[in-house]
Design brief:
Order of helices and strands: EHEEHE
Oligomer: single chain
Distance between the termini: 7 Å
Strand content: 15-25%
Number of helices: 2
Strand order of the largest sheet: 1-4
Radius of gyration: 11 Å
Helix content: 25-40%
Shape: globular
Largest sheet: 2 strands, antiparallel
Length: 66
């Protein structure tokens, strides 16, 4: 089972908290929304990703099987 990080762009308010917590996984795209970098190793960043998920003020970050 592999996990993927997903960001709901419609819900994202562009606060950039996730990219501040973990810039190895998240970045702010040209529209000011959070995006996930390509080929992210979720397992080695799981603690920070979970921190981002719980810290997101609108809950737009999810972990999904994929």
């Amino acid at each position: 089972m592999s996990l993927k990080v997903k960001v709901d762009k419609e819900s994202c308010i562009g606060c950039s908290l996730c990219s501040s917590i973990n810039s190895d996984v998240f970045y702010m795209d040209e529209n000011g929304k959070s995006s996930v970098k390509e080929d992210v190793d979720v397992s080695s960043n799981l603690s920070d990703i979970n921190n981002c998920i719980s810290s997101c003020p609108v809950g737009c970050i999810k972990l999904e099987e994929g």
